[in-house]
Amino acid sequence: MSSSTATSAAVPTGSTSLSLQRSRRTDWLVFLVVMATFALVPPLLGGFALYIATIVAIFAIAALGLQIMVGLAGQLSLGHAAFLGVGAYTSVLLQKLYGVPFLAAVAIATLASALVGLLMGQLVRLSGIYFKIATFGFGIIVYQLLSNWSSVTGGHTGLIGIPPIRILGTVFRDRLSMFIIAMIYLAVTYALLLRLTHGRAGRAFRALGQNEAAAQSIGIPAASYKMAVIAIGCGAAGLAGTLLPHVYNFLNPEEFTWLQSLVLLIIITVGGLGSLPGAIVGAVVLVVVPEYLRAFQEYKMLAYGVLLIVSMIFMPRGIAGIVQGLVTRIRGRHAPAETPS
Amino acid sequence: MTNTILATEKLTRSFGGLVAVDDVTFAVERGSIHGLIGPNGAGKTTAFNLISGLIAPSSGRVLFDGRDITSLPAHARVATGICRTFQTPQLFEDMTALETVMTGCHVKGRIGIAGGMFKFAAKSREEAAIESKSMGLLAEIGLADHADVQARNLSYGQRRSLEIARALAAEPSVILFDEVTAGLNPVETDFIANLIRRLRDTGRTIVLVEHDMRFVMGLSDRVTVLNFGRLLAEGTPAEILSNEQVIEAYLGRPKEKVRG
Amino acid sequence: MNAVIQILSGLTIGCIYGLVALGFSMIFRAMGLVNFAQGDIMMLGGFLGYTALSIAPELPFVFILVIAMIATGLFGFVIERVAYRPALKRNADQIYLVLLTLGIGIVLANAARLFWGANPVVYKIPLTFDIVHVGGYPLPRVYFYIVGFMTLTIIALNLLFTKTWTGLALRAVSQDPTTSRLMGIDPGRSSSVAFVIASMLGAAAGVLYAPLFYVSFDMGAVGLKAFAAAIIGSLGSVFGAVVGGLIVGLAETIGGQIIGTEFQDSIAFAVMIAVLLLRPQGLFAQNRRVA
């Protein structure tokens, strides 16, 4: 008598769920559609659109990390912009002061952001509301350090003379190459995080976000997975941050205020909590729309706030939820036609 | 070495001045169904939480397979082979039934965070194995045709079954059931009883913390009775049912009302 | 500058934080909700007081205070009814609720910016410039108003919680919502009461803050430091909120002198993180549930 008989009694081995396979395939299909749209539309529009798309990609990368952290694992961070700042300053200072090559600087800066995230996680090894407010405080502290540690960060005026991106001796500084680099960043981040969600660790994150007690009861070490997801989220933000100064051609702490942290949260909420493509669509909405409504600049934050409240009340699952609902409804309409009774 | 798989030694836990579990020593035999009963407030749930590691004892030890696991946190006990269910099913509401059980396979998996991102062949092999095992478990508890239904859309009885399947996915040698029949109708209760017998017959050890006397007496090989945090009696169901102390504890002295 | 004056000014600003923190704590107690719009409620109170002043410049300060408190209290009542209660009834997720309160905060701040302008406004009343000498120290007269108001608030809240049915119901709901509902306490009514009181306290903080400094649409950030105060003193504790406020006020005034005033906002949160490291539930935790 073996202990595995309980599972093998009625099991045709190798049985799979078609719809699980299908939903994973759909995820990759959506990945292709999103990345293809990014690759085609801005270059066709050209010029300014390339610049905007680059910024969208940067915010999308940070939002993807935040989505894993908040939407999946339920660890709400109210100071996420600070980690963009850590990434941006670390990378620029390494290049400017020590002549570290671009790619190495990016890698170190990403790692540094993840480590600062871990430090925050360890410092505030807290749950629920305490963690949220502590992340908020952490964001303020980082921002104040960036704006006041003038000898290193240039203080409120920030840094100018950002070194151009140089990879293997080639210098990239025109809009198109910036755009292409940002696209590669985004595609890699998106693909890696998508792969992560389709697996054991991704399930553990989701379990943690949905029911921590239950997650622990099946052997998921909640504390370590929380730290891991914080590191991933903050690392992604840091990675996004490394591109920002090269696109803007300057670096100042105003890009990393508590309002920016809010904007990132609004991005993932409007896009749909828990959805990776939702985070990207949310970034498109929150970056592109204000760019074309510059005349109404002073209404921007008001509009963001209204958008947040409206989406919380009328579409709690965000744009991704609406699209998903539409797709299911269309499929539902087709299904009976395929199988006449 | 005896045939004991799980044991407590002088287990004590007090909350403030109240001693919820007081010097309790008992042993669970490998491959048996063991009932843990007692009137309301007898300390059953506390004892259960001490064994599953949700709370730490004030003194005493918990032994698993002869090994002291008193200081292991709850999640680490799952890997050694103890898994539990909750009084009201605690599920991942947005996951499908299949995903829920696949999540239950966590301790048996090897692919970590980096592997999840960077491994290909090994990952797809592990995923396929986990999926196939999980479908098998769903079939065993009668939820195969609900594999793609979200947990939030399942009936109460189905939720209960799903939680059991999720616990089984960790391949525990001891399963702790906390009031597993609470809220179930007689048909569902019968189904669970049969499932528990089947689990025992395949070599697993079951500990039932129960309110439902008929259920626990009909199913258990041995029964431990707690009262006011102390061990009151232990024996076969027949011995327990004829034990005067137990009857008194449950029915109270003639003047008191019937409890439990 | 004189150390005594520094300490007094720290304690006074601490009272302002304490008032906002009290509101924050009360709402948390009654509804388990972390209201991130509480700082913006303070801002709203300050502006409503400003408007009242520009309509009737001769009105005594106390009336301005009362008018702003009543108007903001009504506003809080409406927000609770329209936005929070439906979400709570639906059993919405914590994340969802936090985002909702954040959204309301952003809307309040930016609506105020459209209405009252982007530049800070100052109360043009004699009180703003009124200095009294106590024991040789020149002190703004508002200090005494602030400390007086704080004292009155503590006494009033104590009476409310121990002597009135509403206060007892509030306490019962915060300790055990299910049982209190079974006992006939309407949790909806309790949350209304908590929200109105919290809004009134926030408004008072805004109006009392104005003569010392200014009122501006982005003042919500000042109120946010009150969160640090509420947390330091343990969420939900009335006494803790007041003490937490005083600690934050003192720490940032004294710390600002030592490290540099530009780091003032960081100091409040650094103190909070330090306190949480030592006592994960704040200084005055009573083993209560934490959301």
Give a summary of the structure in a few sentences.
Chain A has 341 residues and is an all-alpha fold. Helices cover 75% and strands 2% of the residues of chain A. In chain A, helix 3 packs parallel to helix 8 (175-197), helix 3 runs antiparallel to helix 11 and helix 3 (48-72) packs across helix 13 (276-292).
Can you characterise this structure?
- The complex is a heterotrimer of chains A (341), B (260) and C (291).
- Chain A has helices at residues 5-8, 18-45, 48-72, 81-98, 102-123, 128-148, 150-153, 175-197, 200-210, 212-217, 222-248, 258-271, 276-292, 300-314, 318-338; strands at residues 165-167, 170-172.
- Chain A is mostly helical and 341 residues long.
- In chain A, strands 1-2 form a two-stranded antiparallel sheet.
- The N and C termini of chain A lie far apart (46 Å).
- Chain B has 260 residues and is an alpha/beta fold.
- Helix content of chain B is 38%, strand content 24%.
- Chain C has one domain (2-278): Orthogonal Bundle (ABC transporter involved in vitamin B12 uptake, BtuC).
- In chain C, strands 1-2 form a two-stranded antiparallel sheet.
The helix-and-strand class of chain C reads mainly alpha
How much β-strand is present in the residues of chain C?
A: under 5%
Mean of residue pLDDT of chain C?
86
pLDDT < 50 stretches of chain C: none
- What class, by secondary structure content of chain B? alpha/beta
Write the H/E string of chain B, N to C: EEEHEEHEHHHHEHEHEEHH
**End-to-end distance of chain C:** 43 Å
Helix content percent band of chain B:
25-40%
Per DSSP, the total helix count of chain B is 10
The greatest interface between two protein chains, and residues involved on each side, is: A-B, 44 and 62 residues
What is the approximate shape of chain C?
A: globular
Q: Could you tell me the strand content of chain B as a percent range?
A: 15-25%
Shape of chain B: globular
- Using DSSP, what is the number of strands of chain B? 10
The strand order across the widest sheet of chain C is 1-2
Mean pLDDT of chain B: 90
As a whole number of angstroms, the C-alpha radius of gyration of chain B is: 19 Å
Give the arrangement of secondary structure elements.
The complex is a heterotrimer of chains A (341), B (260) and C (291).
Chain A: H1 5-8, H2 18-45, H3 48-72, H4 81-98, H5 102-123, H6 128-148, H7 150-153, E1 165-167, E2 170-172, H8 175-197, H9 200-210, H10 212-217, H11 222-248, H12 258-271, H13 276-292, H14 300-314, H15 318-338
Antiparallel strand pairs in A: 1-2
Helix pairs in contact in A: 2-3, 2-8, 3-8, 3-9, 3-11, 3-12, 3-13, 4-5, 4-6, 4-11, 5-11, 8-11, 9-11, 12-13, 12-14, 12-15, 13-15
Chain B: E1 4-15, E2 18-29, E3 33-37, H1 44-52, E4 59-64, E5 67-68, H2 74-80, E6 82-84, H3 97-104, H4 113-118, H5 121-140, H6 156-169, E7 174-178, H7 186-201, E8 205-209, H8 213-219, E9 222-227, E10 230-235, H9 237-241, H10 244-251
Parallel strand pairs in B: 3-8, 3-9, 6-7, 7-8
Antiparallel strand pairs in B: 1-2, 1-4, 4-5, 9-10
Helix pairs in contact in B: 3-5, 3-6, 5-6
Chain C: H1 3-31, H2 38-55, H3 61-89, H4 94-116, H5 126-129, E1 131-134, E2 137-140, H6 142-163, H7 165-175, H8 177-182, H9 187-209, H10 220-232, H11 238-259, H12 264-278
Antiparallel strand pairs in C: 1-2
Helix pairs in contact in C: 1-6, 1-7, 1-9, 1-10, 1-11, 2-3, 2-4, 2-9, 2-10, 3-9, 6-7, 6-9, 7-9, 10-11, 10-12, 11-12
